[in-house]
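#structure-requests
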Amino acid sequence: MDNKKIEEILEEMWIQREKGSFSLERLISSTQEKITQNDILEIEKAGYIKKGKALTVGRQVSVKFSEKGEILASQVIRGHRLAERLMTDVLAISPHQIESNACNFEHIIHHELADAICTLLGHPKECPHGRSIPLGSCCAKANSNLESVVMPLSKLFAGSRSKVAYITSTHYHRLDRLASLGILPGAEIILHQTKPSYVLQVGHTQIALDGDILKDIYVRKLV
């Protein structure tokens, strides 16, 4: 079995785990590419997964990552979702082309390149579909020699112009409020003031917002 197929199986395992508990049978039936029992045996022998005993309900076999498999799956998922963010926020590729390109990208990216892209994008927490992006070593570092292309609005200086890339808040009432103010992906913002409070302009409207809210608004600086 080639490395690409191993990575695709581990990627599907990761996605199924995000959705809740899963079994070997669900893994085989839910994956688009045909997977055989021999494939599962191969990745088990290679040390990527561990199979458990048959579960009581339906006698399905449980399956989980080994430490080795967890690391590789995390790298593949991270590469795929960072690629989606890059193509959405920076390259402006049409949505119907993003998935296929991201699938190819995930198999060739190495962790140094992933960290560089992550830094450029301002260490995004989620892909465009709202799924979590696994953290990389760059996310834990306080300093970086590479300036981010996408960053929280709170990091800009007064007088800066920017365009909203995405919003990471999980508070629905906050998202609704921002939407009602016209602060949505693609909106252009002028930051007039940072102290004692943040004052920004969206269209012809000036708005005062708390700094904690601006940390959830990721923008691209405009020249």
